Amino acid sequence: MQVRVLAAVAPAPPERVPLMEARGRALRRAVVAPHPLPPFDNASMDGYAVRAADCAGASASAPVTLPVAGVIPAGRVAPRALGPGEAMRIMTGAMVPGDADAVLPFEDVERLEPPGGPERVRIPRPVKPGENVRAAGADLAAGAGALAAGRELSAHDLALIASLGFPEVEVGPRPRAALLSTGDELLGVGEPLRPGAFRDSNLPMLALLLEECGARVVSATRVGDDPGTVAAGVRAALAAADVALTIGGVSAGDFDPVRLSLEAAGGAELWRVAMKPGRPQAFGARGGKLFFGLPGNPGSVACVFETLVRPALRKWQGFAALDRPSLEVRCRVAIASRSGRTDFVRATLEWRGGAWWAAPAGEQVSGHLTPQARAHALVIVPEEVERLEPGASARALLLRWPGDPA
What we know:
The chain is an alpha/beta fold. The protein folds into four domains: about 10-35 and about 145-170, Molybdopterin biosynthesis moea protein, domain 2; about 40-135, Molybdopterin biosynthesis moeA protein, domain 3; about 175-315, MoaB/Mog-like domain (Molybdenum Cofactor Biosythetic Enzyme, Chain A), CATH 3.40.980; about 325-400, MoeA, C-terminal, domain IV (Beta-clip). It is about 15% helix and about 30% strand. The protein has six helices and 28 strands. It has helices at about 1-5, 155-165, 200-210, 225-240, 300-315, 370-375, and strands at about 15-20, 30, 40-45, 45-50, 65-70, 85-90, 100-105, 110, 120-125, 135, 145, 170, 175-180, 185, 200, 215-225, 245, 270, 275, 280-285, 290-295, 325-330, 335, 340-350, 355-360, 375-380, 385-390, 395-400. Strands 7-4-6-5-9-8 form a six-stranded mixed β-sheet, with no helix packed on it. It has a six-stranded mixed β-sheet with strand order 16-13-17-21-20-18, with helices on both faces. A hairpin with a 2-residue loop joins β20 and β21.
């Protein structure tokens, strides 16, 4: 089913944003180095710039003594090249003078300052060419590819981009998302419980998951079960946002409002997907807008989001990697499934004996919230598999690093 959803999604046109606003965004144009990094040979520590040939044969018993021809602070350039038999005092990051090919740190030499005479430096050992010199282009050559398109930009990526002189970055836009949580039985988080009602956990969860994957939530509204109200809400959501998502109301019940309002979603289709949790769904794509009708149980909402919504929105933004990172795991206990259906098992992970071992994070009831909160990963049981035996290998989508307490 993911294939059908992704086939209906096209990356949105890119935009240029200031460097400081690009973290976490999808890089849409590859970054090529316009100049080498570092841009010039420079000292990697405070010391003396020398010619290695002038220090050949130096030893503690027969040191080489060189006159100091000048001082090079960081950010300044030596007035001339280094002559034979000379040294120049140099600070970390300063440009190495012409004809110098090494830097001796202060702590390795003896500084001599005769009264009324020029500074000299006594060198007690030979020096290798290139010692303590960061060569021009050693990090990145001019014209070399620095970052590939589709990358999720980190602070470290942006530091590299900054060093190359780009104050703006071409990235995928953040999709605007509008949410509708349906159901007469739903209460606000701060409302007191009443018979037959539940506090709405799906709306904050889905809003935060959307923000986490790069979307901007422009509205998050709770509505009842009236089909007319839901249809009007869907139309308003699609008018105001790039993606509209409803929660609940897509089953075959007498009062399921989204199922009765699909025309408002631009002809979205009602799906019965062979997956657990999350079988009843709706999806539509028209005019660059996306509509997702999600089930109502929190386990189903989370699972459908991870397997369908998140990959679609990442493709919309232009990311190369659409799914969460995956791990190869082994089952600590048997996990039953049903042939012809893909199961996503909320699981905890433990590193033991050179492998990640997975176990269900609780009863796999789609209405239960605790397994989702405890889970490190979703273990995938393929549709052709009816049972994973203890010790069997499986693939798992990583939700959070297993170092966190479950």
